[in-house]
Automatic annotation (TrEMBL):
It comes from Caenorhabditis elegans. InterPro entries: DNAJC25-like (IPR044632). This is Mariner Mos1 transposase. It comes from the Eukaryota. It is found in: Membrane. One of its GO terms (biological process) is protein folding. GO terms for cellular component: endoplasmic reticulum membrane. The keyword Chaperone applies. Keywords: Chaperone, Membrane, Transmembrane, Transmembrane helix.
């Protein structure tokens, strides 16, 4: 950049291309699309499948040994795993969807126990339904579905 804040023309380099490349390199899209990688291919997963199976069996055996045979108390990681399992979300979804306050609430209510988690989930679903019932967009959608019915792609002759 020069003193006036304007981009200088470099010989043989297009400034728009440079800016585009900087934006692409620094773009962080969480939960969306990401750049393709060799690690996302079927060939890679086929190659590491035996290692994945070994790690899963090892983890399962260690879990069974620690918590079923030795009757250890659950640590925070084990509690979080059980909570994610009972809620039915993956690690990435859990990290994106739930805030620290939600996690503290889950720990206070001992949601690593299945019955407590089911109660918490029912309360949360009821609160979300109440929130949606108050939403104008949801009401409009319900009216549309009531009046127009479902959309059919089958030719009716």
């Amino acid at each position: 950049m020069d003193r006036n804040g304007k981009l200088k023309k470099n010989k043989g380099v297009d400034n728009d291309e440079v800016i585009k490349q900087i934006i692409i390199d620094n773009l962080d899209v969480t939960g969306g699309y990401k750049r393709e990688s060799i690690y996302d291919t079927l060939a890679w997963h086929t190659i590491i499948f035996p290692l994945t199976i070994f790690r899963y069996i090892k983890w399962t055996a260690l879990w069974y040994w620690r918590f079923a045979i030795q009757k250890e108390e659950y640590d925070d990681d084990a509690k979080l795993y059980l909570i994610r399992k009972y809620i039915g979300v993956s690690q990435m979804e859990f990290d994106q969807k739930y805030t620290d306050e939600d996690i503290d609430d889950l720990f206070e209510r001992e949601c690593w126990l299945k019955t407590n988690c089911a109660t918490w989930k029912a309360e949360r679903d009821a609160a979300e339904q109440e929130k949606m019932a108050q939403s104008g967009r949801y009401k409009r959608y319900k009216r549309y579905m009531k009046n127009a019915g479902t959309i059919s792609f089958v030719d009716e002759d």
